[in-house]
Amino acid sequence: MSLKKNFIYSSLLTASNYIFPIIVYPYISRVLGPSNIGICNFVDSIINYFTMFAMMGINIIGIREIAALRNNEHKRNTVFTSLLTLNILFTIIAIGLLIILIFTVPKFQEQPKLLWSGVCKLIFNVMLMEWLYKGLENFKYITIRSVCIKCLYIICVFTLIRKAEDYTLYYFLTALTVAINAVVNIIFSKSFIKLSYSKKTTRKLLSPFLTTGLYIILTQLYLSFNVVFLGFYAPDSEVGYYSSSTRLISIILSIYTAWTSVALPRMSAYFQESNMKEFKDLLHKSFILLLTFAFPVIILLINYNHEIIRLFLGKDFVGSQIPLYVQTPLIFIIGYSQILIIQLLMPTKRDKTLFIISAIGATVCVCANILLTPTHAAIGSSFSWLISELIVLTVAIIVSRNYYDFAFPWREIVKYTLYHAPLFIICWTLQKHTLWTVIPSITIGGVIIVSYTLFLQIYVIKNQFIISLFEKSLSFLVSHKHHENSKHQ
Length: 489
Prior knowledge:
single chain, mainly alpha, 18 helices
């Protein structure tokens, strides 16, 4: 399947990751309230740490290795079996440690039902094997399966979650979606993958599995550690304010992650084939796509912060407004980090370098949290995340310049800033001088931003990649609609 079709399917998947939380989270935040949302997110952050330990680097190494061997069935089966073996081994260790902590840590004993749901989530996560399908670039299957199960999840949430005390059931449902996805993936994988264990291959993969895993664990400190630390030093409501604003940022970022998810296996294949021309071209396209995406989104978040919080979280989450302002620049910072780390350093197997970068970022994160969170709560955690990601990006830029012919694109950034200055002024003027209610205000602002961006890219910048992608998306949607109409006839 072509890169553009994969991107379209990945974008549809990401759009579902964006749309479904938009449907569910406003309802859940109003029913459960800031404190219960904070409890669920606190427990989920704990579970995520154990999940990261269990998975280690498999989500990166798996995609990279499967993509490089997609045309060699025997070696692909051997690599798959070795990675799955490592995954199972580390999952068993993680489950054992988590059970010990459930019985020994007083803070954990406050929410035993949530933590046992988390244990189930951890068990089924090993069978999820999403890295296999991404490595094979089977984004069509991933998208269809994921959307169907999310629809089932939404029905369950709106049917079963009725009062604040239902937060334990809500968290159980989130764990259940992992289990269902895992079962479907196992059944589907039997048609094209076979177990073929090799001790030599397992030993070869152990080092990158651990190194990349430590990178991922340390990187996740910017989010998970902040929530955990905040949970110990601030009220549950502050955890709710912070985690809800980060949820919004993460949902928005997942749109760009749709591209990096598609680019990683393709760039791994280009590097394996020594096709550096295509490798560099794809890297450049990624940066242009980031600029096209980040500037309009940042303008939307800055100008419509209050309306977005009211619409998606509710009036009780007014405490999320300042954290969201602080986190807004992360749209560009993390997006650019993804280009350098996921699309440049990971495919070229700079695993030790990635570990060093993440270690620096994690150290900054811990220090910033110790200094800022006890006194400034959710706002302090937001600044800690921002500072950590900024340091990671800075180090990644320096490292990339040492390895490759790479220069920070100041000219493009200045150009895009000037192009988007009128859009910022238009949105600021409309937001400050009109009396529209929340939904009309965001809707009109969104239409203006999207229209301005498309006009700018197609008629002013004349970005051929964006034009081609836009035309391909329209063609895909039209042909899909025509196919559905033909079936009904």
